[in-house]
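Reopening: structure tokens for the magnesium ion complex, inputs below.
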Amino acid sequence: MGIIERIKEIEAEMARTQKNKATEYHLGQLKAKIAKLRTQLLEPPKGASGGGEGFEVTKYGHGRVALIGFPSVGKSTLLTMLTGTHSEAASYEFTTLTCIPGVIHYNDTKIQLLDLPGIIEGASEGKGRGRQVIAVAKSSDLVLMVLDASKSEGHRQILTKELEAVGLRLNKKPPQIYFKKKKTGGISFNTTAPLTHIDEKLCYQILHEYKIHNAEVLFRENATVDDFIDVIEGNRKYIKCVYVYNKIDVVGIDDVDRLARQPNSIVISCNLKANQSARIPNAKTPIRLLARMWDEMGLVRVYSKPQGQQPDFDEPFVLSSDRGGCTVEDFCNHVHRTLVKDMKYALVWGTSARHNPQNCGLSQHLEDEDVVQVVKKKERDEGGRGRFKSHSNAPARIADREKKAPLKQ
Ligand SMILES: Nc1nc2c(ncn2[C@@H]2O[C@H](COP(=O)(O)OP(=O)(O)OP(=O)(O)O)[C@@H](O)[C@H]2O)c(=O)[nH]1
Ligand SMILES: [K+]
Ligand SMILES: [Mg+2]
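Re-run output (same inputs, fresh job):
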């Protein structure tokens, strides 16, 4: 029997099993069995190197966004609109057969947008180009799940399930469970929160299923069996997802309103002009989608200010609160690898500073559009005068702040 058939068989057994106190241990064990099989499914077949051609596209810019959806929902139309890179769009399904990269220029940052072939139910098990498409989704910083507003609302759930089956977790935080395998000493189980979904015995059974007999486990929140399995598997990817309902030009106003109220959702139409969309409540032109996308990515632009000079407002250093972090230390590492060692302190202007400028250490968390001057150990801080000259491309917020509190030094 193949792996997929075995998964199906266990899923059928779970569906047959009544959910109650007496069966919860058995169900937990079955969940672990499925998780193990799915991980096996993701491993490349033995002997084959790579296993067919993937969609290898080099990463570019400050972040990567993938367009995921059923065929003909308008992914390619959207890529062409947002990036100017042409991707063939047509009324028949599976128009796009490979990965087409485009670049979005927004807020002085560059974001790579990837158009992909449509996927269908069963994608995670290899239907169509499903596996390759999902691999690209996994490599991205944000997923835009494009949905056809006029089609079944079940599509959103079907695709979420396909992505979850390969270890993607959308709009979730990693579970607060500390887990460490040990060589000896048995299993030490601790919890700092009351647990209502799982207990010590069930944990032991799941660990037993994984043939783990020595480990340290600490639950810091009321996590579920699925959360615990995710932590043991350790290969899950936590990614933000925005559900983009396209084609709202062909549905009624009540449907538009209802879809717009779904969590993490935005409703758009590639066919509507801005003035038309103003008449539909909650409707966004695809351009407005950019602002939402940018917010979700948690990018932080930091402008470097050399001593006694203007910062360069055209060239931000782009950090991310989700990836890599956005402290003064992260900023220094972006600028030069020896800067952390040489820094005495940093002067920070902007929303993260309590007063302008604030003397900060390496651990200061920077916020979008902050200005940083690194004062090195050897240099003496001359406490210069001089304001920032108004700069044609300077972001408006900085110009405002400049009026209130001039950026001295
Ligand atoms: N009415 C309407 N049609 C749209 C909209 N956006 C795209 N379309 C049409 O929908 C059809 C499919 O668009 P594509 O961009 O090819 O869709 P896709 O998701 O890339 O399709 P595949 O590559 O086949 O998966 C085309 O005929 C588009 O013109 C929209 O907002 N409203
Ligand atoms: K199409
Ligand atoms: Mg397409």
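The radius of gyration is 25 Å. The CA atoms of residues 120 and 127 lie 7 Å apart. Marking as resolved unless the reporter disagrees.
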